[in-house]
Every structure is written in structure tokens, then in C-alpha cells.
Specification:
mainly beta; Immunoglobulin-like; 2 domains; 4-stranded mixed β-sheet; 1 helix; 18 strands; 41% strand; signal; SD-repeat containing protein B domain-containing protein; Sdr_B
């Protein structure tokens, strides 16, 4: 066999080998934001063993102008995935049943906590460049529960001897409350002389028979107390037992639990 034939054969074999080994280039995977929606049964903001995923919850992505760009529905295990690129975006649940609300956010364990803020129900702003972050969402049963306590609850005083009590409004529910008010009506033999508290606007209205009204419009998050309201009172009766009832209520949202909305102050005069 001539050298020219051998050369041509070797070149053909080399070309065949290169062609056979060539692998077509694959497109880079599209960035995807993922997460899980779960039932936070103990309302601690952290997913724990036994807390199941929640199916059929819609998670949507929005641009800064609130334009929706994509949405996905959670599967049986509570997982969702949204293909996104660029940004910035925010995520928010859509059409959540009224009986449900979101759990306390960002408690510290980013791998297991809930990443959607109270109030807005949104995540922090993010971009998918080159990859997307992960956002989880815990859901709880909605409960609106604002409670009131007075301390001390019993006081002994003489006629004309002023004393003070402190009122504490607590959010024992699962929903941030967009404002609270405290009120108390006239009690014969007991005069309200003043009421003050950080973040509270209070007035004592003599024309309404010593009607006390205090209002705070700052958000009141679950598991927290508002600053105390200090109320000064003066007995005007010579003697006797007088009971004054203070009441608290939240506005802009519906109350679910009523028995703890009132706090009773008993004053023994004499």
C-alpha cells in the first residue's frame, strides 16, 4: 500500500473520531426561584418536622411597578417554582383564604424560616442574576386577639388621694393590628385626671362625663405589648367600693376573641 493511501486513511479515521466524540452544546438552565409553603402549626416562624406543606397556594412575582410577571401553584408537598431572569422582583401570595394569614417572618434560621413580611405579605426585593434565591412561606390560622390588663387591679385610697394605674394592650393573635384604642366611661365617685403613654394620643373629656379615650395607630405585631398607658385617678366619694372597667379594641381588623378585651379596676375608698 502506498504512503499516500495510508495517509488518506489515517486522516479519515481521525476526522471520524473527532466527529463521533463531539457533544452538542446545551443551553444554560433558566434561573428559577423556588420555595415551600407550609402550615406553621405552632406559630414560631420555623418549619419543623411534622409541619406539612400546603398545596394549591399561588405565589406570584411582581416588578417594582406591581406588574405581575409570573405565578406558580404549590404542589401536594407545598413546593413551587417560578422561572425568572433579571429583576428586580418581589414575591407575594395571591388569593389567600381569609381564614389564613402568614406566620412571623425572618426569625433567624434562613433555611427553615418564613421569608414573607407581615403587613405587605411580600419578600425582600431580589434579582435572578445569575441565580435566584429561595423563599419559603409559613401559614397559620387567622386570629385577631387584643387583650387588656390593668396593674394594680385593686387599690385602696382615701377621698382626694390621687393614684395611678398602668394599662397594657397585648396582641395575643396571629395578625398584626393596624391600631388600638382604649376607653373607659364615667364612674361616680372616681375621677380620671390624666392619661399618657408613649405612642398614645389620650384625652379625658369632662363634657362626656369623664370619658377616657386613648388611641395608637402604630402597627401592633403579634406577640408584643404596646407601651403602657398611665392613668391617674382621684376618688371623690367619701367611702365605698368602686369598679371601673377599661376596654381595648383594634381598628381596621375584626376581633376574634372578646372576653379579654376588658380590664376591671377595683378601688376601695375610705
Amino acid at each position: 500500500m502506498s504512503n499516500s493511501i495510508r495517509g488518506a486513511g489515517a486522516a479519515a479515521l481521525a476526522l471520524l473520531s473527532i466527529t463521533a466524540l463531539a457533544v452538542p452544546a446545551t443551553a444554560a438552565p433558566e434561573p428559577t426561584v423556588t420555595g415551600v409553603v407550609w402550615a406553621d402549626t405552632d406559630f414560631d416562624g420555623v418549619r419543623e418536622p411534622g409541619e406539612a406543606g400546603v398545596a394549591d397556594i399561588t405565589i406570584a412575582a411582581y416588578r417594582a411597578d406591581n406588574t405581575e410577571v409570573a405565578s406558580a401553584v404549590t404542589n401536594k408537598a407545598g413546593h413551587y417554582a417560578l422561572k425568572l431572569s433579571g429583576g428586580p422582583y418581589k414575591l407575594r401570595p395571591k388569593a389567600l383564604a381569609y381564614a389564613k394569614t402568614i406566620t412571623r417572618p425572618n426569625v433567624g434560621d434562613d433555611a427553615r424560616d418564613s421569608d414573607f413580611a407581615w403587613g405587605t405579605w411580600e419578600t425582600a426585593e431580589f434579582s435572578c442574576a445569575p441565580s435566584c434565591p429561595k423563599f419559603d412561606l409559613g401559614l397559620v390560622e387567622r386570629k385577631q386577639d387584643i387583650a387588656l390588663a390593668v396593674a394594680p387591679a385593686e387599690v385602696s385610697a382615701r377621698k382626694g388621694q390621687s393614684f395611678s394605674v398602668e394599662l397594657t394592650a397585648s396582641n395575643l393573635g396571629t395578625v398584626p393590628n393596624g391600631g388600638d384604642w382604649i376607653e373607659a366611661g364615667f364612674k361616680e365617685g372616681l375621677q380620671v385626671t390624666s392619661a399618657t403613654g408613649d405612642g398614645w394620643a389620650c384625652r379625658v373629656d369632662p363634657s362626656a362625663g369623664q370619658y377616657l379615650f386613648c388611641r395608637s395607630e402604630a402597627d401592633h405585631n403579634p406577640g408584643t405589648d404596646r407601651p403602657k398607658v398611665r392613668v391617674e385617678l382621684t376618688p371623690t366619694a367619701d367611702s365605698g367600693d368602686i369598679t371601673m372597667d377599661f376596654h381595648v379594641a383594634g381598628f381596621r381588623r375584626s376581633e376574634s376573641v372578646f372576653p379579654n378585651n376588658a380590664a376591671a379596676l377595683r378601688v376601695r375608698v375610705g
